[in-house]
Amino acid sequence: MRVKVRFYGVLYELLNIKEVNLELPDNSSLKTLVEAIDSKLNPNFSKTLLDEKGSIRGSYVILLNGSAVREEHIDNVKLNEGDVIAFLPTAVGGKRLRPCYTTKNY
Predict the structure, then answer these.
(1) Which among 30, 36, 38, 41 is most buried, taking Cβ atoms within 10 Å?
(2) DSSP secondary structure string, the chain?
(3) Contact 5, 52 (CB under 8 A)
């Protein structure tokens, strides 16, 4: 089966790839996908994304067809033909901006 995989933030920087289509065996899990990314793109991907127990680190989010993966164990998340998986860092920090008002009086 073929899935589309997208990478954002530091994961994009790690792989230097924004999007890739990967061929996986039928009935693959999210764990199978991460292993495929390790073997085909960068062996440090899983070390960055997962903790020592194999769970998703709190600083990352995985979206499966636009919905956040809430399952702690990625081997329990099954993939289907045509799925779109996005790996991205959580949205934290950033510069606090002053509000900008463009009020006009008439």
Answers:
(1) 30
(2) -EEEEEE-HHHHHHHT-SEEEEE--TT-BHHHHHHHHHHHT-TTHHHHHB-TTSBBPTTEEEEETTEE---SBGGG-B--TT-EEEEEE-----PPPPP-------
(3) no
pLDDT of amino acid 99? 47
Whether residue 104 lies inside any domain: the answer is: no
Q: What is the mean pLDDT of residues 68-82?
A: 88
For residue 62, count other CB atoms closer than 10 A to its CB.
20
Q: What is the pLDDT of residue 5?
A: 97
Residue, of 54 and 83, whose pLDDT is higher: 83
pTM of the model: 0.82
